[in-house]
Amino acid sequence: MTRRVGVVRFPGTNCEFDTIDAIRMLGGDAEILWHGDPSLKNVDAIVIPGGFAHGDYLRCGAIARFSPVMGAVASFAQEGGPILGICNGFQVLTEAGLLPGALQKNVGMKFLCSMQQVEFVSTQNILGRGSEVGDHLQIPINHFEGNYVCSPEVLSRIETREQIVFRYTDNPNGSTKDIAGVCNEAGNVVGMMPHPERATSALLGSSDGASVIKSFLS
Which structural domains are found in the chain, ordered by start? Predict the structure, then answer.
């Protein structure tokens, strides 16, 4: 059965159609979920894509977390529904309390746009099917506030509970412990700064993101 994915759009989102194209290319179906509509339209999975929700005013994702759709997203997460937040979507999920930690400005205060190598740290989550710990992926980043931070207590907890999904092999932004992506305790909610939807074909420089999206769709 084809998995139906709802891709949430906020004012300022700009990666929704890239995400939809990647999902459809890899065998899923996808449609837009408007942030002001509390209905999830009975989708099977949710992606919060990249961009600049509400212009990234206050903090990235700080306004988006109050959108009507986010109440339904939180309930969906609690029920075990698969949710992927990419870049700005990762920021939204941390602001909403659905993922631990926070994202702040990159070390060096520079916007970064480059291909990066990330390593699977844990596969006990919705993105790890078919992968092994230690697998390396080439996936691009495109962010100014991708520096993952958390308290020592939270870091200890997410390390112990295998909630760190990806690490950079050459940290570009100063993220604590090279963290590029994390999940919730249940593994059904994942946030990552790299953009797998932009790495689904060798024509884009890498097809490594395809395995991540295929796992999400399975």
Answer: 4-217 (3.40.50.880)
Listed in sequence order, the residues at least 6 apart from 102 whose beta carbon sits closer than 8 Å to its beta carbon are 94, 95, 148, 149, 150
Q: Over the stretch 36-93, which tens digit does the pLDDT of each residue have? A: 999 999 999 999 999 999 999 888 999 999 999 999 999 999 999 999 999 999 999 9
- Angle at CA of residue 187, ends 207 and 149, nearest 5°: 80
Largest pairwise CA distance in the chain: 46
Report, as residue numbers or ranges, the catalytic residues. Answer: 87, 195, 197
